[in-house]
Amino acid sequence: MKDKRIKILKQAKPSEGNVAYWMNRDQRVNDNWALIHAQKLAIERKKPLYVFFNLVPEFLDAAIRQYKFMTEGLKSVEKDLKAKNIPFILSTGQPGKNIPELVQKYEVDYLVTDFNPLKIKKQWLKQVMDRTGISIIEVDAHNIVPCREASDKQETAARTIRPKIKKKLYDYLDDFPEITEHPHKPDKQEPAIDRAEVIKTLKVNTRVKPIDWLKPGEPEALRILKEFIEKRLNRYPNERNDPTKDVLSNLSAYLHFGQICSQRVVKEVIASNADEGAKDVFIEEIVVRKELSDNFCFYNENYDNTECFSGWAKDTLNKHKKDRREYLYSCEELESARTHDDLWNASQLQMVQIGKMHGYMRMYWAKKILEWTESPEQAMEFAIYLNDKYEIDGRDPNGYTGIAWSIGGIHDRAWQERPIFGKIRYMNYNGAKSKFDVDKYIKKYVNLPQ
Ligand code: FAD
Ligand code: FO1
User: Fold this and answer.
1) Shortest CA distance to 258 belongs to which of 395, 83, 99, 60?
2) Does residue 389's CB lie within 6 angstroms of at least one atom of ligand 2?
3) Which atom of ligand 1 is nearest to the CA of 262?
4) Check: CATH 1.25.40.80 for 143-179+218-301?
5) pTM over 0.85
6) Which atom of ligand 1 is nearest to the CA of 286?
């Protein structure tokens, strides 16, 4: 077990208490370094092991769509843990209050939690640390090369973090120990979770309907991974930027909710007999791009606003702030896909209807929001709001980074200067037309019943 995945956040004096894993980002039993470490600690101390999960009534702009996917996935987590003598304790409300209460109730002295670069988790962690006097340990169960280990600062671009990650990647592709049946019985028997009651605690938008084309949970994530490797991976290099082709992995929702980890995905991809070139192209995305996003959000708390843009980007966007906008749309007009651009409308409708916009279209979608709103500040606000409300994989470091890349040139370089965009990379309809059959894509979404 690489100790570099482990960060002692608070060291209390050793004592006779139990061990708990506060599950947040990595919502799975298998291949979960945080759970593996928590069980190791509990076995060493001959103590019961508990898993806490706190369900917040709202999370950024998540709707019932995302909560349904997540809570369905947690059902199989609870079942698998129960079979291993590890109680899964679900609390509802604010973690700053609930986790310290659970620590008290279950006499926990060691609290393990998984790494999460978003500022909301940093706030939660601070509240828990201020209200408990116990040891708190953070384990990076999401990145292959732990975020802090890959780099100790915000990286400029993929090309600067790539060598740092590649150098260590194979050190961190080790095998995952199994979670065994826990030998120390829990002190208390837990009443079954009343899920009807749990759902009532949510204060989320119920109009953004759950999706049915992706089944949540670890087993389904593994099935989709195997199918991707067998049927789509070899076509990925040439067709991944064509939204009319179905070659993407479709793993982002599972990765976002931690129902599968990228280390498992990469190990299976490397072990497969897919083309080596295809493996490299896919690994660039799921390792370099994905871990660059955690690096960006972890080291730059302004990942969700224009303050995070580099100096050159701020200057160029300010210089063009007063440029005439040929089109201006409100958030509602964008949300209901009522713009003059049928390609953009189709991408918005894809996101609203199926909860997952194609990766290539996300760049075009966000860049047009910069072009058709009053300011980069407003563009960031609208893009993040819509992305977090409708994308099944939203509210994720990849999303904040993807939007900051599109609107503020994060991890990108300066390009030919032009109105509104300044030197921020521009994308347009003709560019898309040269890459794929835009009419075919548009027909797929624009004619569907709203
Ligand atoms: P695949 O191409 O199969 O990729 C597999 C995995 O690699 C992805 O799940 C993701 O973890 C990682 N990956 C791929 N492309 C990128 C990338 N550009 N940056 C970081 N990681 C990447 N991704 C999200 O997970 N949530 C979001 O909310 C999100 N919003 C985005 C918004 C914009 C404006 C842009 C430009 C990109 C956004 N992305 C987001 C990144 C990327 O588009 C998605 O991760 C990808 O389309 C998810 O589908 P997939 O898993 O089938 O992709
Ligand atoms: N994490 C939690 O610990 N409790 C929640 O109730 C919760 C809700 C939630 C809803 C939508 C969503 O996209 C994420 C949610 N998360 C929740 C956080 C998630 O598990 C990740 O930690 C973050 O999104 C960072 O990737």
Assistant:
1) 395
2) no
3) 11
4) yes
5) yes
6) 7
